[in-house]
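ok trying again, last paste got cut off:
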Amino acid sequence: MNFHHAPNTFVGQVNLKVQHLDRALAFYQQVIGFKVLEQTEQTANLTADGKTTLLSLEQPENVVPKHGRTTGLYHFALLLPNRADLGRILKHFIQVGYPLQGASDHLVSEALYLADPDGNGIEIYADRNSSGWNWNNGEVVMATEPVDAESLLTEGQGESWTTLPADTIMGHIHLHVSELKKTEEFYIQGLGFEVVNRYGNQALFISTGKYHHHIGLNTWNGVGAPPPPAHSVGLESFTLLLSDEETRNTVIARLQSIGAAVKEKNGSFVTLDPSGNRILLRV
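nice, full thing came through this time. structure:
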């Protein structure tokens, strides 16, 4: 399955603001299994393969706790290489006593849900083979059913969990947004994604290359939800990886044609979705 390679557009990195960097690092290393790639007094880049940053943490000056009922991060999602890895990390969570917020069988994938000490949402999941995904009128069939935890644990028997597998990637991101009409225009007409599932009038799941979703968008924090304060815990930005410069130039032109601003600084291109979620456009 090559849903996270060119020519697809997908999430490569998520950048979070935390209240206490040391506390966050302890969690992400000991509970999740990240390795530290680079670190300063107020920032840290985390990796699974020792080369690629998947998650960046920052402790801003005068940081305040996470605000509820705002736009921003619902969760970021780490995609494990296989189901056995998901079983191993489930056993690890049980052994260390870290509380899960949920576990779901989505038909296309199986997922565990939790939050870091700052309340940033995390999904850890493994995909089912895409040959078994069902599509109906252009939409992928997903559900929220109970995970077969016993089967997962059985499959994950053997080697204990120590670190994230090197092949772990950022599978998708799910965002709280303030409304869906302009949001859909921004992500579909501007960024070039396709809608692959509509969850009533409250959520959209979008992707490239017929993945079940690279981005989720919902209004579950309320239509008209405001953005969080700039110095609060939560999402700082996320990176979209585009296949080449030509594709990025095309995306920038499309964004500008619908009235979205794209700013360039030191070779980096940044845009904001209609809810203020910050997106870095990288090749």
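cool. The longest helix spans residues 83-96. The domain at 10-282 is CATH 3.10.180.10 (2,3-Dihydroxybiphenyl 1,2-Dioxygenase; domain 1).
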